[in-house]
Amino acid sequence: MSILKKIATVSLILSALIILISFTDFTWLQSARMVILSFIYLFLPGYTISLFIFKEAELMERMTLSMALSLVLLPLLHFYASLYQIYIHKSLLTMIIILAAIAALILRSGFFGGQKN
Protein backbone atom coordinates (compact mmCIF):
# COMPACT_ATOMS: atom_id res chain seq x y z
CA MET A 1 0.00 0.00 0.00
CA SER A 2 1.49 3.32 -0.99
CA ILE A 3 2.07 6.11 1.49
CA LEU A 4 -0.58 8.26 -0.20
CA LYS A 5 -3.25 5.60 0.35
CA LYS A 6 -2.24 5.24 3.99
CA ILE A 7 -2.46 9.00 4.52
CA ALA A 8 -5.87 9.10 2.82
CA THR A 9 -7.15 6.25 4.99
CA VAL A 10 -5.96 7.83 8.22
CA SER A 11 -7.34 11.24 7.26
CA LEU A 12 -10.72 9.70 6.41
CA ILE A 13 -10.93 7.96 9.79
CA LEU A 14 -9.84 11.09 11.66
CA SER A 15 -12.31 13.28 9.77
CA ALA A 16 -15.14 10.87 10.62
CA LEU A 17 -14.11 11.02 14.28
CA ILE A 18 -13.92 14.83 14.25
CA ILE A 19 -17.35 15.12 12.63
CA LEU A 20 -18.87 12.74 15.17
CA ILE A 21 -17.26 14.54 18.10
CA SER A 22 -18.04 18.08 17.03
CA PHE A 23 -21.62 17.69 15.81
CA THR A 24 -22.93 15.22 18.37
CA ASP A 25 -22.90 14.77 22.12
CA PHE A 26 -20.77 11.63 21.91
CA THR A 27 -17.46 11.34 23.70
CA TRP A 28 -14.22 10.57 21.90
CA LEU A 29 -14.42 6.90 22.88
CA GLN A 30 -18.02 6.52 21.71
CA SER A 31 -17.16 8.17 18.39
CA ALA A 32 -14.18 5.87 17.87
CA ARG A 33 -16.36 2.87 18.69
CA MET A 34 -18.92 3.97 16.10
CA VAL A 35 -16.29 4.36 13.38
CA ILE A 36 -14.67 0.98 14.12
CA LEU A 37 -17.98 -0.89 14.34
CA SER A 38 -19.17 0.75 11.12
CA PHE A 39 -16.10 -0.66 9.42
CA ILE A 40 -16.72 -4.10 10.93
CA TYR A 41 -20.40 -4.25 10.01
CA LEU A 42 -20.40 -2.42 6.68
CA PHE A 43 -17.15 -3.58 5.14
CA LEU A 44 -15.67 -6.74 6.61
CA PRO A 45 -18.38 -9.36 5.81
CA GLY A 46 -18.66 -8.30 2.19
CA TYR A 47 -14.91 -8.11 1.78
CA THR A 48 -14.39 -11.67 2.95
CA ILE A 49 -17.07 -12.90 0.56
CA SER A 50 -15.67 -10.84 -2.31
CA LEU A 51 -12.27 -12.47 -1.81
CA PHE A 52 -13.74 -15.77 -2.95
CA ILE A 53 -16.34 -14.61 -5.48
CA PHE A 54 -14.51 -11.80 -7.30
CA LYS A 55 -10.95 -13.08 -7.50
CA GLU A 56 -9.81 -10.79 -10.32
CA ALA A 57 -11.33 -7.56 -9.00
CA GLU A 58 -9.13 -4.57 -8.26
CA LEU A 59 -9.02 -2.87 -4.88
CA MET A 60 -11.61 -0.15 -5.54
CA GLU A 61 -14.01 -2.60 -7.19
CA ARG A 62 -13.58 -5.01 -4.29
CA MET A 63 -14.23 -2.25 -1.74
CA THR A 64 -17.38 -1.13 -3.53
CA LEU A 65 -18.64 -4.68 -3.89
CA SER A 66 -17.84 -5.43 -0.27
CA MET A 67 -19.99 -2.52 0.94
CA ALA A 68 -22.87 -3.68 -1.26
CA LEU A 69 -22.52 -7.31 -0.18
CA SER A 70 -22.45 -6.32 3.49
CA LEU A 71 -25.56 -4.17 3.11
CA VAL A 72 -27.34 -7.15 1.53
CA LEU A 73 -25.92 -9.92 3.71
CA LEU A 74 -26.42 -8.59 7.24
CA PRO A 75 -30.14 -7.70 6.96
CA LEU A 76 -30.79 -11.11 5.38
CA LEU A 77 -28.88 -12.80 8.17
CA HIS A 78 -30.92 -11.00 10.81
CA PHE A 79 -34.19 -11.63 8.97
CA TYR A 80 -33.69 -15.38 8.66
CA ALA A 81 -32.29 -15.66 12.17
CA SER A 82 -35.35 -13.94 13.62
CA LEU A 83 -37.62 -15.97 11.35
CA TYR A 84 -36.32 -19.14 12.98
CA GLN A 85 -36.26 -17.45 16.41
CA ILE A 86 -32.49 -17.41 16.69
CA TYR A 87 -31.58 -14.15 18.36
CA ILE A 88 -28.04 -12.94 17.77
CA HIS A 89 -26.52 -10.55 20.27
CA LYS A 90 -24.49 -7.68 18.78
CA SER A 91 -21.23 -8.67 20.45
CA LEU A 92 -21.62 -12.27 19.28
CA LEU A 93 -22.29 -11.08 15.73
CA THR A 94 -19.20 -8.87 15.86
CA MET A 95 -17.05 -11.79 17.03
CA ILE A 96 -18.47 -14.07 14.33
CA ILE A 97 -17.76 -11.49 11.61
CA ILE A 98 -14.19 -10.91 12.79
CA LEU A 99 -13.40 -14.62 13.15
CA ALA A 100 -14.93 -15.43 9.76
CA ALA A 101 -12.90 -12.66 8.15
CA ILE A 102 -9.68 -13.91 9.73
CA ALA A 103 -10.43 -17.49 8.68
CA ALA A 104 -11.24 -16.40 5.13
CA LEU A 105 -8.06 -14.37 4.84
CA ILE A 106 -5.97 -17.29 6.13
CA LEU A 107 -7.61 -19.71 3.70
CA ARG A 108 -7.27 -17.26 0.83
CA SER A 109 -3.58 -16.65 1.50
CA GLY A 110 -2.78 -20.35 1.24
CA PHE A 111 -1.36 -20.55 4.75
CA PHE A 112 -2.18 -24.25 5.13
CA GLY A 113 -0.21 -25.39 2.08
CA GLY A 114 -2.71 -24.54 -0.62
CA GLN A 115 -1.88 -22.40 -3.60
CA LYS A 116 -2.60 -18.70 -3.48
CA ASN A 117 -5.24 -17.71 -6.05
Helical content (DSSP H or I, runs of 4+):
over 70%
> How many helices does DSSP assign?
5
Question: Overall pLDDT, averaged?
Answer: 79
For the termini, the CA-CA separation is 19 Å
Shape: globular
Question: How can the largest sheet be summarized?
Answer: none
Number of strands: 0
Radius of gyration, whole Å: 17 Å
Structural class: mainly alpha
Any overview of this molecule?
With 117 residues, the protein is mostly helical. The protein has a domain at 43-109. Helices cover 78% and strands 0% of the residues.
What is the structure about, briefly put?
By secondary structure, the protein is mainly alpha-helical.
Main features:
mainly alpha, globular, 117 residues, 5 helices
Give a topology summary.
Layout: H1 3-23, H2 28-42, H3 44-53, H4 59-83, H5 90-109
Helix pairs in contact: 1-2, 3-4, 3-5
